[in-house]
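Two proteins, back to back. First:
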Amino acid sequence: MKKKISVTISEEKLDEIARCVQKGEFRNKSHVVEYSLDKFLKEVIKNGRI
């Protein structure tokens, strides 16, 4: 199940996310954030930081 959250990010990062969506690399902004967070968490876990 997915839950809606609220985050605050810089305008520059939001513009970069929008470009990824416009290029068709991702379905929407949520997809970009979820994909990125998944990659980050896998790396953190792999390195034993959590």
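And the second protein:
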Amino acid sequence: MIYLTQLIYIIEGQEGALDEFESIAIPIIRKHNGELVLRIRPGKDSLIEGIAELPYEVHIVSFPSQKDFDNFAIDEERKASIHLKEKAIRDVVLYQGVLL
């Protein structure tokens, strides 16, 4: 099982484009045996300490294998909607790990 954590920073005013992209991408995660473990929009009051910019959203996704994730990444329906992601997202920080 692999876990992916994304810190998502959006372009101001493009929240709708992100929501539209996510409405397409989340079902595709399931199509490739993945699960959306958490989708969080942290508020300023949730920050205890740190030097990093607070992301707009934090996503934690799991896939049974790297191959399942790779298939998700190259999914044709997902690739057809990438323009929405590019319109909405300024930066993404991606952490990949496994359950210990």
